[in-house]
Amino acid sequence: MFRLSTLAVLIAFASAALCFAQSKPAEPQALPGAKAINLQLEAASPEEAFAELARQAEVQFKPMGQNLWTKADPVELKIVNGRFWPVCIDMCQQANVRFNPNFFSGIPRTVELFSADQGMEPITKCPYAETQGCILALMSANRSYSISFANPNQTANTFGIQAMLLADPGVDLGGNLQALATEAVDENGASFLPPNNQQMFGGGGGQPRSLARHLFLNLAYPANAGKKLVRLKVDMRASIVTKSDTLSIDSPIDAAPQKKDLPAMSVEVKSVKTVGNTVEVQVAINSKRPMQGMERQDMWNCISAIELIDSQGNRYTQMGFGGSGGTANSLTFTLHFGSPSQTPGKPAKLIWTLPVETKEIHLPFEFKDVPIP
After folding, report:
1. 181 and 201 together in one domain
2. Is residue 251 within 8 Å of residue 346, measured between CB atoms?
3. Per the CB 3.0–4.6 Å rule, which of 157, 199, 215, 286 could disulfide with 330?
4. Nearest 10 degrees: CA dihedral of 62, 68, 69, 74?
5. Cα–Cα distance for residue pair 328/372, rounded to 1 Å
6. How far apart are CA 348 and CA 330, in angstroms?
7. Burial level of 241, CB count in 10 A (0-12/13-18/19+)?
8. For 199-218, how does the pLDDT look when each residue is reduced to its tens digit (9 = 90+)?
9. Bridging pattern class, strands 110-115 and 60-63
10. 87: part of which helix (H) or strand (E)?
11. What integer pLDDT is reported at residue 1 of this predicted model?
12. Distance (Å, rounded) from C-alpha 20 to C-alpha 213?
């Protein structure tokens, strides 16, 4: 097919001129691992406020840039049984600081903070909805139209929305998040859902243990489309870890190879060594039966749960990993970590959190008055 013309329309939902309505359904039971946030802050310094939120949620806030706290405003919050992300967003608004989800992927359970003139626009400028402490934000919409030179009747008119999920830091989501639009109607009553034979869950990117994950909503574009989706309902499907085990190794560079046997698989840390200013970790995963479908991807997701920690308790930054062969039952990986300090030293501990039991969940999100191209 030759492309005659392509219409690519990108809506920047972050425009401050647009006002979006969010739907917040009744809060069901909290997801396993989610922690309740309780705060009684009166004119607290921003450093104290974020430190208390970090303590209760068991996350780390990492200030970016010099004098972030001196530029931030005091915080006053009274929260009972709150959830991390709604509280964090409120605290950021009061303190006049920003967080950037694109920087969540290096160190697990870490949120980087920026001054008001840095980082991305506040996520509250995007259409967003909350369910069980998780927030789904719609970041942009894209429409593309094409026609075949050989067969002018053969055309394609595709439409989709890029979204970002902010997961509760206490919930251990698996790597394969998927989103499906279950209702999408404009102001004229036209449906934007694809035909039944084209309905699909859209996958996402980002490291499995990252607090921010990206998703894609697959939609259709009807003739005489309106200007907005008056209703958009999304079903997000994910796997959460309900039971885990840990392989912990002290002084991993000096340690011998170590194995851990689990009901569905066994894992081995084969070697840990310094390579220049980085630390290289080689591991192997062996399934107890041939891996099928997404099971192989699930094995890849296990790798993101490996952490290196220095003698001061600081985490090394995972810089990436790659596979070096395998079979239907096994995979071998090499990971690279960056030092948490400017004077690299040997890691004091390796911790590998491994899934033992998982459970599939569905999270519903609903939006109103979403502008479309």
Report:
1. yes
2. yes
3. 286
4. -110
5. 44
6. 28
7. buried
8. 555 555 455 557 888 888 98
9. parallel
10. helix 84-95
11. 40
12. 22
Is 222 within the bounds of a domain?
Answer: yes
Q: Measured between alpha carbons, how far apart are the two ends of the chain, in Å?
A: 24
Query: From CA 144, how far away is CA 264, in angstroms rounded?
Result: 43
Over range 148-160, report the average pLDDT: 84
Total number of domains constituting the chain: 3
Query: What's the pLDDT at 93?
Result: 93
Q: At CB < 8 A and 24+ separation, what contacts does 203-206 make?
A: 203/176, 203/177, 203/178, 204/165, 204/177, 204/178, 204/179, 206/104, 206/105
CA-CA distances (angstroms) from residue 225 to 183, 222, 234, 281, 370? Answer: 15, 6, 20, 52, 13
Domain that holds residue 113: 21-126
Residue type, 148: S
Residue-wise pLDDT tens digits, 312-338: 888 888 887 777 666 767 888 899 998
Token pair 């094995």: residue = 299
- Confidence at 101, pLDDT banded by 50, 70, 90: low
Return the CATH number at 112. 3.55.50.30
CATH number at residue 141: 2.60.40
DSSP per-residue letters across 126-178: S-EEEETTEEEEEEEEEEEEEE-SS-TT-EEEEEEEEEEEE--TTS-B-S--E
Give the Cα separation of 231 and 143 in Å (integer): 19
Q: Which two tokens stand for residue 363?
A: 């999270």
pLDDT at 344: 64
| Nearest-angstrom CA–CA distance, 369 and 127 | 9
Most confidently predicted of 10-24, 170-184, 272-286: 272-286
Has residue 261 been placed in a domain?
yes
Residue 154 half-sphere exposure toward CB, CA atoms < 13 A: 7
Burial class (CB in 10 A: 0-12, 13-18, 19+), 188: exposed
Which residues face 21 on adjacent strands? 368
Q: What's phi and psi for 304, nearest 5 deg?
A: -65, -15
**Is the confidence at residue 177, as pLDDT, over 60?**
yes
Dihedral sign of CA atoms 59, 60, 63, 64 in order: negative
